[in-house]
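User: I'm putting together notes for a lab meeting next week and I want to include a structural view of one of the chains we've been expressing. I don't have a solved structure, so I'd like a prediction I can at least talk through. The sequence is below, exactly as it appears in our construct file.
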Amino acid sequence: MSIKLALRFTLFCLVFAVTVANAAAPKFSISGTGGLSMPSGDFGDKEKFNASSGLSLGGAADYVINSNFAVGVDGTWNSNKHGAEGKTTYYYDPTGIPLGSATYTKDKFTTSQFGLHGKAMIPSTGPLSGYGLLGVGMYNVTEKWEGTIRPSSGPAYADNGKETTDSRTGFKVGAGGEYKVNPQWGVGAEADFNSVSQDKAKVGVSSITYMTVRAMVTAHIGQ
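Assistant: Thanks for the context. Below is the predicted structure for the 223-residue chain, given as structure tokens.
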């Protein structure tokens, strides 16, 4: 699925929301989420970014167009540990002679995202409902590390730093479900796949991909 297709779908939903005549009071929902972020592809590859599963926190606000569609904004923050964190790696030349070691006490990726989305609801008459989701947004990935390099000859020295990718456009596709405890509150879960284009000449890969699975609490307004 292309970013252009996701953008067209989201823009269509936004235009549709503005043009739909609705005499009833506006209906909104506000959600908070928390769960797991799971790197995939080059992001999770041990020979490349080597990121492991970590915490994912987020939130969203939706305008309910009707029983079939909703549009909104969302944001997430993910933290993923690099595989080198807490470990000592030893280096050797091609003949097997030790060159030294590196130990990193801290090495983490943080990914922030903010964007727009559209939801297609699965018709339901009971408290349990489901939906499909498609969205686009801006993504930013930062790696921050603190470590010590110990050459086989010479004194040890600190290796501390931070690298941040350019803000890049990405898309997400996912699905979720909710159980309404009462007309004002609901609990549920949501899972989505995210793909962010990258400048391979700068970061070494053409895209960063990951999945999130999060529990959700939602407040409904005007419903």
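A couple of points you could mention at the meeting. DSSP finds three helices and ten strands in the chain. Confidence is low (pLDDT under 50) at residues 17-24.

User: Perfect, that's what I needed.
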